[in-house]
Amino acid sequence: MQDPLFPDTDNLGAPPPKPRTRGRGVEAASAAPALRSLRERLPPLLRLGTSSWSYPGWIGSVWAQDYSPQKLSKQGLRAYAQHPLLRTVSLDRAFYQPLTVDQYAAYAAQVPEDFRFVVKAPARVVDAMERDESGRGLQPNPGFLDPQRAQLLFAEPALEGLRHKLGVLVFQISPLPDAMLRGIPNFIPRLGAMLRALPALKTAAPDAVVAVEVRNAEWLTPDFVATLRDAGATYCLGLHAKMPPIEDQLPILRALWPGPLVCRWNLHRKHGAYGYEDARQKYGDFNALVDPDPQTRTTLARVIKGTTAAGYPAYVTLGNKAEGSAPLSAVALAEALADG
C-alpha cells in the first residue's frame, strides 16, 4: 500500500542517503503528491503523529538526507511538521524530565498554527516508584498522583508554553509493582482529585484534552471510568503488549462516549510486555513496516471514523515499535481510513 506514495525510490520511500552536512538545518523530505491527496481524504478532526522524531532512519519519508539523532532532536521538529500527514507529535521526553515554559514555547514556535502536541506527564507525577538510572524501583514515590506536582511540573508549564498548540495532556501511569496492584481502588480517588485540580484548558487551548493511560489492566474498572467522566478526562487507548488488545479496551471508550479519542500505539503485541529491546533490534533503522498489523489498524480506523464523524477530535500517535516505522504506520493507517 505504501509504494505509490513514494515513487521512484527503494525501501518504501527511502532514496539513497545524502552525506551528512554540518552547519545547516534539517531538510524535510519532498512529499509525493499522493501523500498530499491522501491528507485531503482524512477527517479534519484527526491528528496523526509519532512518538518523538529524532530517528535518522526516516530518510525519504520524513528527512531528505542522513542526520545524527542529536541534530534531529534539536532541529528536526520544523522539518517533521512539514510532512502532510503528521499534524501532532508526542513529547515523550517530558516523562523523564519536566519541561519548562521556555522549552515548550520553543517547540511551539517551530510548528504550523494547526499543529498540536501530545505531552506526557513527568514520571515524578505518574510513577508510583522512585527509580534509579537503570529503572529499578527504589522506594514508593510520595508525589504519585499529587495534584500540586501535576499542576506545577506539568499542566501549567505546558499550557503557558504551548498555548493553543496544546493537544493532549497524557497521564501515562507507569506499571505498578505487583504488591501495589491491590491498592488500585485506593489510587482511583487520588487520580480523580489530581484530575479535578488541573487548570482550565479550553480558554487558552480550545482543542486540549486530558487523557489517562495505564499499563495494568487492573485499573479498568467501573470506578475508574466514573472517575474519568466526573473529571472531564478521557481514556487513552494504549496499544501495548502490557494491555489487552484494542478490541478488549473499546468498552472503556464506549462507557465514556461521546467524547474525543486519544490513542498511543507503542508496541507490537508479538514482542510481549517487555519487548521494546527485541523490537528495536529487529526493526533496525525504523525505515520499513517489518510486522504489519492490519487487524489493529482496521479496528483503530473504525474508531477514528466514528469519533470524528460525531464531531470529536482524534489524536493518534504511533511508535516505531508498533510495526517497524512510525511514519510508514501513519501512512498505512491513513490509507485504511481513506479506503474505508
From TrEMBL:
Residues 1-30 are annotated as: Disordered. Pfam families: DUF72. InterPro entries: DUF72, UPF0759_sf. This is Uncharacterized protein YecE (DUF72 family). It comes from Sinimarinibacterium flocculans.
